Amino acid sequence: KNVLVLHGPNLNLLGSREPAVYGRVTLVEIDQKLAQFAREQGAELSAFQSNAESALIERIHAARLDGTTFIVINPAAFTHTSVALRDALAAVGIPFIEVHLSNVFARESFRHESYFSDIAVGIISGLGATGYELAVQYALQQP
Ligand code: DQA
């Protein structure tokens, strides 16, 4: 099993970015914990963050050829804007879970719309960094 974790724009600032909304944990800490969990399960995990839509799209395209079996993605603000990122996930056909640290439905109405949810295996929103862990756990449970 080979899980790819993707983080969208501004998530590199986790830890200091709006801590009341997103918590104090940093992206490095999140990724390290996920990598350790995957290792314990005998699986591969790689993580990638970008503030650029194009870089995220290119990474998804590369996943077609690098053995990725499952994607866990927090598209961040691109959740609400990016048809291109949605199309990239649809194009590669790799199953994915959409994760949000915050409960997007408890926030501004523009965050209630997602270009990803209807083609995702599932969605986790509002559980903080634990959401990523649960998503990876699910991915590693798949046959
Ligand atoms: C987010 C929610 C988005 O609305 C926001 O633009 C983000 C982070 C979250 O993890 O809660 O950047 O995806």
TrEMBL record:
Involved pathway(s):
Metabolic intermediate biosynthesis; chorismate biosynthesis; chorismate from D-erythrose 4-phosphate and phosphoenolpyruvate: step 3/7
Q: Where is this site: Transition state stabilizer?
A: R17
Query: What Enzyme Commission number(s) does the record list for this chain?
Result: 4.2.1.10
Q: Which GO terms describe its biological process?
A: amino acid biosynthetic process; aromatic amino acid family biosynthetic process; chorismate biosynthetic process; quinate catabolic process
Any one GO molecular function term: 3-dehydroquinate dehydratase activity
Which proteins does it associate with, and in what oligomeric form? Answer: Homododecamer.
Q: What does this protein do?
A: Catalyzes a trans-dehydration via an enolate intermediate.
Q: Which family does it belong to?
A: Belongs to the type-II 3-dehydroquinase family.
UniProt cross-references to PANTHER family, sorted A to Z: CATABOLIC 3-DEHYDROQUINASE (PTHR21272:SF3)
Quote the protein name from its UniProt record.
3-dehydroquinate dehydratase
> Which source organism?
Ferriphaselus amnicola
Q: What is the lineage of its organism?
A: Bacteria, Pseudomonadati, Pseudomonadota, Betaproteobacteria, Nitrosomonadales
Source gene?
aroQ
